């Protein structure tokens, strides 16, 4: 569990926010007054988005790229708020950014993935935010370290910030993948189970890296009960100075939001509840059988361990292991199970079996030693 108590739900951050997914849209970076105003007006016209996002200071991997327009961009965001009524949010990475964001009445602050990875920076930001009532959204760190993410949230919470949310933007892949960042959905799910009241917003744009994959990721986030979406939107993505491939046009954003299905967590429908319950009963019974079978399998693994020990044979039998993999993958495929799933499952079972046989063999070896003493 976490120390995150009394988190304020998003609808209590500002009047007008409702208990529905928070929709945040806007360009990766503010580039010019014209680009910001045109994008904001087009987004506001959709009448679906709550918050306008824009990077003012951009963290770039290599120097020499466009690093944001700085303070003047905050004036454009003030203008956005005045003309459209949208709330505004920017990324802050140091105390000076906070000071300026507060000076220009930015409504919500977000902490970028690179900053979350550094507890020194996070602490400095948390200290600078003491006494301000600004909601803070903390992106996941670049590496899939849930403790680092929770730690950053706790630092803000300790500084008195209870209007807190997490943003899931995926994790750096060490190998080339179709997505820019690996979602690793199990991590935000784990975060939610560590703190039920913490809102989690998904940033499909930085997970996808390409507009093509955004709808699927956004739908998945909604199906996992996430509390909002942050989607990069630019009036003319082909001319964007950063993240050009992943920014939607306002029209594409409109289509995406139209097609998204917002399912509810539960319904007060007796028929639905009873059907769901009977299906869950079946799952419970299958799980029970699965556990019993695994336990029986482990007993046999132990017997084999004893037998191998008696005959002085090694634990790992590569040919046998390879045969298990190929036959089970074939069987699994016939049964409609994905190769990746079966492989991972077998690897887990095999690892546990090796562990079990190691214990058995060590025990026998230790008792033999005792007897020869
Ligand atoms: C961004 O939101 O534009 C951004 C820089 O995101 P991240 O910190 O997730 O890379
Ligand atoms: Mn971006």
Provide an overview of this structure.
This protein is an alpha/beta fold and 373 residues long. The chain has two domains: 10-259, Alpha-Beta Barrel (TIM Barrel); 270-372, Chorismate mutase (Chorismate Mutase Domain, subunit A). 51% of the residues lie in helices and 9% in strands. The chain is built from 13 helices and eight strands. The protein has helices at 33-46, 71-84, 95-103, 113-116, 119-129, 146-158, 186-194, 204-208, 214-223, 250-259, 270-310, 318-334, 339-372, and strands at 22-26, 51-53, 87-91, 108-111, 136-139, 164-168, 200-202, 228-232. It has an eight-stranded parallel barrel with strand order 1-2-3-4-5-6-7-8, surrounded by five helices. Strand 3, helix 3 (95-103) and strand 4 (108-111) form a beta-alpha-beta unit. The longest helix has 41 residues, at 270-310. It is elongated and about 85 Å long. The structure holds phosphoenolpyruvate and manganese (II) ion.
Q: Overall mean pLDDT score?
A: 95
Succession of helices and strands: EHEHEHEHHEHEHEHHEHHHH
What is the CATH class designation of the largest domain? Alpha Beta
Helix content: 40-55%
The CATH homologous superfamily of the largest domain is named Aldolase class I
Any idea what the CATH architecture of the largest domain is? Alpha-Beta Barrel
Low-confidence stretches: none
E-strand count: 8
Shape: elongated
Q: How are the strands of the largest sheet arranged?
A: 1-2-3-4-5-6-7-8
> Biggest β-sheet, characterized?
8 strands, parallel, barrel
- Domain count, please report it: 2
Q: What name is given to the CATH topology of the largest domain?
A: TIM Barrel
Strand content: 5-15%
Decide which structural class fits the backbone.
alpha/beta
Head-to-tail CA distance between termini? 50 Å
């Amino acid at each position: 569990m976490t120390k995150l108590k009394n988190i304020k739900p998003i609808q209590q951050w500002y009047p007008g926010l409702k208990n529905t997914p928070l929709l945040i849209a806007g360009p990766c970076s503010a580039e010019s007054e014209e680009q910001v105003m045109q994008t904001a007006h087009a987004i506001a016209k959709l009448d679906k988005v709550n918050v306008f996002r824009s990077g003012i200071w951009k963290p770039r991997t290599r120097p020499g790229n466009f690093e944001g327009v700085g303070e003047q961009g905050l004036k454009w965001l003030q203008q956005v708020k005045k003309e459209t009524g949208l709330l505004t949010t920017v990324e802050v990475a140091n105390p000076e950014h906070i000071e300026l964001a507060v000076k220009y009445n930015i409504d919500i602050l977000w902490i970028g993935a690179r900053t979350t990875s550094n507890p020194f920076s996070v602490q400095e930001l948390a200290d600078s935010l003491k006494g301000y009532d600004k909601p803070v959204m903390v992106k996941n760190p670049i590496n899939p370290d849930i403790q680092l993410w929770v730690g950053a949230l706790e630092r803000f919470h300790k500084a008195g910030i209870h209007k807190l949310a997490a943003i899931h933007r995926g994790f750096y892949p060490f190998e080339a993948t179709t997505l820019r960042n690996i979602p690793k959905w199990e991590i935000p799910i784990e975060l939610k189970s560590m703190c039920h009241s913490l809102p989690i917003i998904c940033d499909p744009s930085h997970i996808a890296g390409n507009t093509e994959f955004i709808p699927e990721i956004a739908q998945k986030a909604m199906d996992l009960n996430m509390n909002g979406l942050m989607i990069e939107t630019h009036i003319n993505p082909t001319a964007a100075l950063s993240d050009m491939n992943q920014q939607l046009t306002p029209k594409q954003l409109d289509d995406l939001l139209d097609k998204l299905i917002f399912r509810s967590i539960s319904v007060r429908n007796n028929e639905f509840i009873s059907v769901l319950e009977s299906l869950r009963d079946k799952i419970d019974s299958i799980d029970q059988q699965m556990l019993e079978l695994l336990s029986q399998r482990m007993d046999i693994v132990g017997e084999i361990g004893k037998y191998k020990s008696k005959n002085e044979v090694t634990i790992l039998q590569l040919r046998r292991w390879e045969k298990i993999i190929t036959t089970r993958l074939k069987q699994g495929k016939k049964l409609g199970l994905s190769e990746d799933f079966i492989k991972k499952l077998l690897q887990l079972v095999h690892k546990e079996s090796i562990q079990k046989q190691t214990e058995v063999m060590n025990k026998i070896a230790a008792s033999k030693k005792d007897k020869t003493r």
